[in-house]
Specification:
Number of helices: 11
Distance between the termini: 19 Å
Helix content: 40-55%
Order of helices and strands: HHEHEEEHHHHHHHH
Strand content: 5-15%
Structural class: alpha+beta
Strand order of the largest sheet: 2-1-3-4
């Protein structure tokens, strides 16, 4: 996105040859479609450098989501952190990935940092921020355990629900992804989930694992306002990132019906939204019926 044009360099030619070989072997994809896919991917992998104000975090993420600020929980995680820590930031929406090929990522005074957790660690160190200073070491350990459960386990159940089990391809439609590109994304997500291990299970087993995670989080949260009590902690940013997508942006799938069994998780989402996202309605597209203004 924002590239100088769909030029076909040597790397692109190599990639095209590899995809074309697979297409010929399987006999399922037309040559023209493969070229279009490779061009689409390349165009969005490059963008010109921009000048940004100093001491302002530039958050690179996808376009705004239909019912939550992003379709990826990790962008909501980082943006919620920036708001919680009161760090000046600006968004750059688009499809330009980090050097690691991941979203979201940040720039700060010319430095680029990839991976949501590394982004937060970097800013904590650089700006002397500690959102968990009021909590004990035990509390911090518990918060990290729940965060990692959600990010490394529950997340993959939600990936399968959204990208593999949803035969209507609802996410592609809301993200305005071309159907052919959606096919490749769907296939890649399926392969990644299989490599992780979650994708080796049946859908019933995956949803069972997911529900146990939701139940564990619900039981621990209880009547508390936030994960560890009356004050939010850093892990709340991650918890909210995943829970907000499950609550507002699961498009009627089993993820949505599961989270709505747990009233305290739904209330938690509403509370986090009210506390850190007073401009929520300006940060969503309302089902792609209007442009987000922030």
């Amino acid at each position: 996105m924002g590239a100088n044009g769909p030029g076909f360099d040597s790397n692109m030619a190599m990639e095209s040859d590899e995809v074309l070989f697979l297409a010929k072997a399987s006999g399922t994809v037309l040559i023209s479609s493969v070229v279009l896919y490779v061009a689409w991917k390349k165009i969005r992998s490059k963008a010109p450098k921009k000048d940004h104000p100093r001491d302002t975090v530039v958050l690179h993420q996808f376009d705004r989501g239909p019912y939550a600020p992003s379709m990826t929980p990790y962008a909501i995680k980082v943006e919620t952190y920036l708001r919680m820590a009161k760090i000046p930031y600006k968004n750059e929406h688009g499809f330009t990935p980090s050097k690691k090929g991941k979203w979201p990522w940040i720039e700060y005074n010319g430095e680029e940092i990839a991976d949501s957790e590394f982004c937060i660690e970097y800013l904590n160190d650089k700006l002397g921020i500690d959102l968990d200073k009021h909590f004990t070491a035990k509390d911090r350990g518990i918060a990290r355990a729940f965060q990692k459960m959600l990010e490394e386990n529950t997340y993959w159940a939600c990936v399968l629900d959204r990208w593999v089990y949803d035969e209507n391809w609802t996410s592609c439609k809301f993200m305005k992804i071309p159907s052919l590109t959606g096919y490749f994304i769907r296939r890649q997500m399926k392969q990644m989930a299989y490599a992780h291990g979650m994708g080796r299970h049946s859908p019933n087993e995956v949803y069972h694992i997911m529900e146990l995670d939701f139940k564990a989080l619900s039981n621990f949260l209880g009547n508390k306002k936030f994960l560890l009590g009356d004050k939010p902690c850093q892990a709340d940013c991650s918890v909210f990132g995943l829970m907000s997508n499950a609550y507002w942006q699961s498009f009627g799938t089993q993820v949505e019906s599961t989270i709505k069994k747990y009233k305290n998780l739904c209330d938690y989402c509403e509370r986090m939204k009210e506390t850190f996202w007073p401009d929520w309605d300006e940060c969503i597209t309302h089902g792609n019926t209007k442009e987000a203004t922030k």
